[in-house]
Write a structure and sequence with these properties.
The chain is of the alpha/beta class. 63% of the residues lie in helices and 7% in strands. It has two domains: 223 residues, no CATH class; 154 residues, Rossmann fold (3-Layer(aba) Sandwich), CATH 3.40.50.
């Protein structure tokens, strides 16, 4: 799967799970896209090939109705020209920085600029090595990727953590106007931006590293060019000017350590201590142009060995890595949404287990629930409603329904009339998840409570809030639904999103 394929896949996923763009994507369109993908790649095709083909088919059917689809896909988040831009910026900065430290016709043997450049890059190497074993502060890379993500909601609306560079992209202007006026588009873009930011982290990291390493190489080249340009127009005199390094022995020892790689490669040898003493006392009178150029040569070789070459290798490595990730995008297909599509590809029936707790839905409510689940699954499905587990039965394994090896999704059903309790309802959820090895989707039937108190009563709202808080403490989002009537399209889409995001087999 390529980067562009992954982009289409995640966009289609957000559209299907969030019901965006005015629900213009109908069930018939989804089914037709699935059939077209199967005809194109076959039932035995690799999962990523089928998923990519289906996403292309969905976009082909939806794009004529929604022009913003093409606007989203037309944005290019990465341009190779940025590499050359970073090189140009680095080179100009290198030349300019060198000019700030330049001394025209004087070559100081303890020149500060080259060693500042070298020491900074050595610190970068240490940080890169440490970063392999010491992860960065949580959320740092995510915030960086979100800032660089042109489809993130913040980038499109100019909110905090947004990317101002993308606000003026001509292809995004109609999209910006649309999401500011459409709640549906906002939901799609928020979900899509979050998903793409998470999926593209490795690739974004490689590309950012490539730009930084390329700029560093160009910076060093700029420093070297500036140093030789200065030597071209001047008769260099070798001097020793320092208020800190004043001892000839200390100066020779320091430079022998700093120049060690360059001395090893070039075969040069530093003069003895008496030469340093004579240079210090004579203020440069014992130096020659040849000696100054030799010293300049040592600085240049040091910059090349310790900065330019390692940075070039790192840039080439990250360039290869980013290209590889772009051609073989590492998109995980291990969630409920993709598993549902792959079951459709293989014509495998989904098996849904529904376990009521301390409530026994009426026959009509059971049929309504089965229809809701079937519509949310969106494919061949077998829905099994188990016998209710009595209150307190979570502690008695014989009262819990046996796990089924072929179960793909687990739903637990509660009644809104009950007050949620961690030691009972929470324990029941954990017990069912342990038995089935599947995450549970929490469904709360509010039909009886509404009949008694009304849909807009304060009691209804308070009880809803209590269940929402309880589910949130378990890391769940509950589905509130009245099973007295046929479930609405919003309920189907909400359950679909919960089923997809909960995982499952």
């Amino acid at each position: 799967m390529t980067e562009h394929d992954a982009l289409k896949v995640l966009l289609v996923r957000s559209i299907e799970t969030q019901g965006g763009f005015g629900n213009q994507l109908q069930d018939a369109d989804k089914q037709m896209a699935t059939r077209m993908a199967i005809e194109e790649v076959g039932k035995d095709a690799a999962p990523d090939a089928f998923i990519a083909a289906r996403a292309t088919a969905v976009i082909g059917r939806l794009a004529p109705r929604e022009p913003l689809i093409e606007a989203i896909l037309a944005v290019r988040p990465w341009r190779p020209a940025w590499i050359w831009a970073s090189v140009a910026v680095g080179f100009v900065l290198g030349v300019g920085t060198s000019e700030l430290f330049g001394e025209d016709d004087r070559q100081n043997i303890v020149d500060l600029l080259p060693w500042l450049v070298i020491l900074w890059n050595l610190a970068v190497y240490v940080a890169l090595i440490a970063g392999k074993h010491m992860p960065l502060r949580p959320g740092f890379i995510e915030r960086l990727a979100r800032w660089a993500n042109p489809w993130s909601l913040a980038a499109l609306t100019g909110k905090r953590h947004g990317s101002p560079a993308f606000l003026f992209h001509p292809r995004l202007r109609p999209l910006i106007r649309r999401i500011r006026s459409s709640q549906e588009s906002t939901a799609v873009l928020r979900d899509f931006g979050r998903a793409w930011t998470s999926a593209c982290l490795p690739m974004v990291t490689a590309r950012v590293a490539l730009l930084m390493h390329a700029a560093s190489v160009a910076f060093v080249i700029g420093v070297i060019v500036s140093m030789y340009a200065n030597a071209w127009g001047n008769d260099l005199a070798l001097v020793w000017e320092s208020s800190i390094v004043t001892s000839p022995g200390a100066a020779r020892l320091l430079l022998s350590v700093l120049f060690a790689p360059a001395l090893y490669v070039t075969g040069f040898a530093l003069p003895d201590t008496s030469w340093f003493a004579a240079l210090r006392e004579s203020a440069g009178s014992v130096s020659t142009v040849e000696a100054a150029m030799d010293w300049l040569y040592l600085y240049v070789v040091s910059l090349l060995l310790l900065v330019a070459i390692p940075r070039m290798l790192l840039a080439l490595w990250n360039d290869w890595r980013s290209r590889r990730l772009s051609c073989r995008f590492p998109l995980s297909l291990d969630d409920g949404y993709f598993r549902s599509l792959l079951r459709a590809q293989r014509d495998v029936t989904a098996n849904v287990q529904i376990v009521p707790y301390a409530c026994e839905p009426a026959e009509a409510a059971t049929h309504s629930l089965e229809g809701l689940v079937g519509a949310a699954i969106g494919g061949p499905a077998v829905v099994n409603v188990e016998k209710p587990v009595p209150f307190g039965g979570e502690d008695e394994p014989e009262l819990l329904p046996p796990p089924h090896a072929d179960t793909t999704h687990l739903l637990v059903l509660f009644d809104l009339s009950a007050t949620p309790e961690e030691e009972n309802h929470g324990a029941f959820i954990r017990a069912m998840e342990d038995r089935s090895a599947l995450p549970a989707v929490v469904v709360v039937n509010e039909s009886g409570f509404i009949r008694r108190f009304g849909a807009d009563s304060s009691r209804h709202l308070a009880r809803r809030e209590a269940w929402a808080t309880f589910a949130s403490s378990l890391g769940r989002i509950p589905l509130f639904v009245s099973l007295d009537a046929k479930p609405s399209g919003d309920a189907v889409r909400e359950l679909q999103s919960l089923v997809y995001n909960s995982g499952g087999a």
